[in-house]
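Explain this protein:
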Amino acid sequence: MTPNLKTDFPQDGMARLTLSQPARRNAINADMWAALPRILAELEATHPKVLIVQGDGEHFASGADISEFGTLYQTPESSAKISADISAAMDALAAFPVPTIALIRGACVGGGLGLALSCDLRFADNTSKFAITPAKLGLVYPFSDVARLIEAVGAPNAKDILFSARLIKAKRAEKMGLVNKVVKTDEIERAVLDYAETIAAQSSQSARTMKHMFAAYAAGQREETADMQALFLGGFASDDFKEGYTAFMEKRRPDFD
């Protein structure tokens, strides 16, 4: 475990990943990017029903650690290596098999916003500020990250964010669809835990299957297929459906495993 990535389990059914480099506003260094897929795989093996991703302290993440750029991007080979590590980290989070929630405070910029966009849902407090700034550095944002941004806010807003590299405050981010909900600073932790508890109380089998469908849609699928039909019909044979139906008939809350 890299010391800048912490994991814990705040409540039953929940896992939490914390980006922890608070002295640098949780800037994500090369070791953190490289370790993220492994740590996410370890969290997946604990079979959580929901994953919360947050920063340590007052910020989510100020982006990639610019203090390392002189070394990481010194040669074409080193540039390709760190770019592949960042892409693998983003993809691993996006592919996490259960719902993921980004809990956002303060700075959520560049690669930090890329990680937040790799989550299914984003809750922000009213101190949150968002930006994607490669245009300020003469760089280009990776295509997969551009695609996730477009999926979240639409092409016109994505162009605004990328072309201007401007800082966007929480309420504007909410109007854009960049975040799902803005909560008061002293309420954000409780709001996310309460929402995560709501997800954890539902069928994990349903959530995992629907995440698979969302991923297929994001990859360009627009028509029903035999595989997707099988996923839908398979739900009726599942233990979760038996429990959900029985609980409905008995007028009680279902108790999914």
Summary: The radius of gyration is 19 Å.
